[in-house]
Structure formats: structure tokens, C-alpha cells
Amino acid sequence: METPTATSSDVPPVLESCIPLPIDECRLVDVVEKAKDWAIMHGAAMRSKTDFNPDALQFAPFILTPSSFPRKEFEKAIELQTTLNELMHAVSHDTEFLRETLQGTIKVDAFTRSLFEIYETVLKEGIAQPKSLALLRSDYLANFIESNAIKQVEINTIASSFGGISTSMAPMHSFILTELGHSEKLAQLPENRALYGLCDAMVEAWSLQVRPQAVILFVIEDVTYNICDQRFHEFYIRETYPLIPVVRRTLTQLSEQAKLGPRGELVLGSDKMEVAVIYFRAGYEPGHYYGEKEWAARLLMERSTAIKCPSIQYHLAGTKKVQQALAKPGILKRFISDERKIDTIKEIFTGLYSLDKNEEGDEAIKLALSNLERYVLKPQREGGGNNVYGTDIPAALERMSEDERSAWILMERIFPPVSKGYMVRPGGKMPPQIVNLVSELGIFGAIIGTKDKIIYNKQVGHMLRTKLSSANEGGVAAGLGALDSPYLIG
């Protein structure tokens, strides 16, 4: 392994702004107030984590004007998504690969081990429902070190969020640009139908069950902050397909209400509602499982004939360890036969290294310590805020036993170009100041199939999250980033 020469001290280029900045202060204050109200009134909103009130919403943090993103790279990501869908479908159905890849991780990571035990249980009993639905999101940063070529940050296989709210961002930015007198810029904002595409895929899975009275089940957290994003999915299904009921239950509620029927169907409550599709918006982190009851509910769902989104094997396929293993030389050929497709996937990979207790892992640690600002440590966790960066890496490695290292991967950092704009946050100063920003593009995909046959495979939309260029993490739900939409340049 060679030590990369570029570092975070390299000065990133600044992308051309979609409109001249700064905006006159009087005009800025006026349009920010309009934008806040637009966001609230159109559901680009969340519940407050700091001052939670189930009866109140505040606008989700947003960037006032759309951030520039290279058109060529955006189109590349769009075109690639169906191939990534195929890849993750094949990975999730390769039992030998999942066992081999995660064998070290499950020894030291209790959460991944619990998921894997469910997987092994249903394998032994026989998979009750061979069809699976995956709603994926592949996240990218443009890398200025490689002429702004996109590099994959991760691919999400469970609870891929913000498809609902992100669909509102291009209309919101269209309104703002028009208010500012730049309606001629609207052609550079790509249409985004993420909400409709994700929901239509759920309905497609529901229709495959041929059970007209069955429901779609949303598995949710006890407290949902990102409520608009979830409800938009539910309301779209109910409005567009009024004969399909949608119900919401927590893992704890399911432990008390859910049972298997005589045909292995999942039934809920005393009225015995049958579930056709299970859509997980919870269950991706340890805090969602308070004890054995919640784990038993997860196993019960996997044992059922409902189509899961995701199935347990798809959940495991989304772990960081699997992402790292897929970047190893020659591995993609195991899952994709088309050499052209393999080449397009390899182009988006950045350096990913195992930290297992072997020679390869020891070399990866030496690599990280030789150039701390060039790397990030990633664990098997979703939801943001779990990674370790830069000068914090040595202490983190020091705390790990050799076995614990297997639950982490080392990833080369991606250095994106900077854009300038106004970040608007609840309670933020008025007027907002121009800040340096970096943006992460997410592309949504939907795929339905069995181990041997793909039934449905589409790219269904996108999202853009933008953070301060000085911030390591950028999750909107975690309170670190802001919603945005791409303004395509080049």
C-alpha cells in the first residue's frame, strides 16, 4: 500500500456560485424569512431534538440557494445506480461471502452479531419469503484531487432517509431563485422524484403478494424527529393508492402485537391485519433494541412471508466491512460479470482497508499513522456521528484490542471542492453569513427480486446534504448538515 501524497491541507477549489454573492442585506433578510415559511408550509421540516414537542415542527436546516455540483459527475451517479442495485442484490444473496467477510466483526461487535444470528436462524429454518425489496442510497463526494470525480462515501441499505423532504428542495430553490430575480437558473436544477419512486417501489412489492387486504408496515422509532420525511411516504401511498393501508409500529409494539399466521404470514393485533411489506425506518442501531423483546420482534418479522425492506441479509450487506471487502482487487467479478460495469464501479471507490489482526491490518494502521489527515476510521454503524478523524485516530486505535479492530475499517478521506452560500438553521443568526460549504450527493435506487431473478430495478431520485467545510460529519438528522439541491455546472 502506498501512502497518498495529497492531504487536507491542499487548498480546495471554489465552485462557481449559482448567483452572485453576497445578496444585499435587506433583500437577504426578506427572502430568508420567506424561505423559512415556505419550508414549514411545504413540510421541509422536523421535530426539534433540543426542545421536543410532538405537536410542533421547525423547518429543517437548509442552504438558501442551491449548491453547485459537477453535471458530468451527477449524471454518472444517476446512470450507475441500477448497476449498484444489482451489485448489492448479488452481495446480499451470497451467504458464503457474508459469512467470510463478517466473521471477524461478529466476534467483537455485539450488534452485528445479533443481526447475523437472525440471519443464520432463518437460513437454517428456510427463507420464508424469497423476494426482497431494497431502497438504497449511494452517497458521494466529489474529490478535487481527482478533477472532482465522485467517490462513494457509503451505500445505505436500511432506513435510507430524506427521500421525502428532498423532493421538496428543488421546488423550494426554484421559488427562492425566482424571488431573487434569477428564474433563468431554474433549468440547472434537475427534477427529483425520490419520494414517488421510493413509494412506488413499495407498492410494487405489495402488489407481488396478491393480498388485497394486506398492509404496508412502517417500523419506526419510539420518538420520530424526522417525522415529515416518513409521513410523506405514508401520505403519498394513501393518496395515490387509497386501497393500500399503511400502519406504523415500533419494535416494542411489534413484540406485543405481532404473530405468525398459519401460512407464515405476519399478522398484527386482535383484528389480525396481515402485513405484505415491512419498511424499516428503525432497527439500524443498537439503541432501537431495548432488550430481548425487540430482537425477538425482528426475528419474527424475518421468519414471516412479508417482503422485507430490507431483509436481514440486505441489512448485513450494507455494513462498512462489506463495503471495504468489495473494494479488494478482483472481488467485484464474483458478483458482476460485465467488465464494463465493473470498471464503472471501481472508478467510484476510494481506498478502503481492513483493520483485521493480520499483516494487511497492521499495514493499514501504519498507513493511517503516517498521514492522519488523509484517513477516517469507520465502525459498523449508521446514523452519523460515529466516525473517527485525523488526530483522534491514534488514541482510538490505542483503545482497541486486536479483536476490536475487526469491527472497523480504514477509509481514505475524500476532499471535496468548496462552494459558498448561506446556511439557514432554526435559531440561527439573522442575517446569515456567507460560509464555505461542501456537499454530499445521495442517489436513491429501488430493486426487488429473489436470489436468482431481479424483478424490478430503478434509479428513483437524489438528495443533496451540505455542511460547513470545516465539519467532519454532515448528517441532517444528527443536526450537523443542511438540506440542499444540486445546481448543475460544467
- Give the overall average pLDDT: 94
In helices, the fraction of residues equals 25-40%
Distance linking N and C termini:
34 Å
Main β sheet profile: 7 strands, antiparallel
Number of strands: 21
Low-confidence stretches: 1-6
Coarse structural class? alpha+beta
C-alpha-based Rg, rounded: 22 Å
> Strand portion, in percent?
15-25%
- Please state the overall shape, judged from the principal axes of the Cα atoms: globular
Specify the number of helices: 16
Structure summary:
The chain is an alpha+beta fold and 490 residues long.
Detailed description of the structure:
- With 490 residues, the protein is of the alpha+beta class.
- 35% of the residues lie in helices and 24% in strands.
- It contains 16 helices and 21 strands.
- Strands 3, 5, 6, 17, 18, 19 and 20 form a 7-stranded antiparallel β-sheet that branches.
- A hairpin with a 4-residue loop joins β18 (434-449) and β19.
- α1 packs antiparallel against α7 (169-179), α8 (194-209) crosses α9 (227-240) and α10 packs across α11 (292-303).
- The radius of gyration is 22 Å and the shape is globular.
- The two termini are 34 Å apart.
- The model is unreliable at 1-6 (pLDDT under 50).
